[in-house]
Amino acid sequence: MEIPGNDFRIKSKAIQDRARVDSKAPATKADSTSPTVSTSSTVNVSSFAKDVQKAHSAVNSASDIRVDKVEKIKQQIANGTYHVDSQDLAESVLRDIIGEAG
To answer: Whole domain around residue 88: which residue ranges?
Structure first.
C-alpha cells in the first residue's frame, strides 16, 4: 500500500536547496562611494501547508496495527468462528494484482 503525499519531503528538500542557493549572493567588491544595500529573504508558509505538515507528522507517528481489529479476530480464531469468504479473498487479491500492474 502506498500513502500519497510521500513526495512532500522531496519538494521540501528542493525548496530548501533553492533557498540556500538564493541566499548565497555573489561576492562583489564594495565601493566606498556606493551605499550598502542589504538583501534578505523571507519564506511565508501558508496555513494549509502547516496543516499538511501536521497531518503528515500524525500519519508517520500513528501505529500501523489496529489493536481492536486484531483482538476481535484473535477471539474469533480462538472460538472457531473466524471465516474468510473465498470470493472476497479472490477479489481482493485480483484488485491488488491489477493495482500493481497499473
So the answer is: 49-102
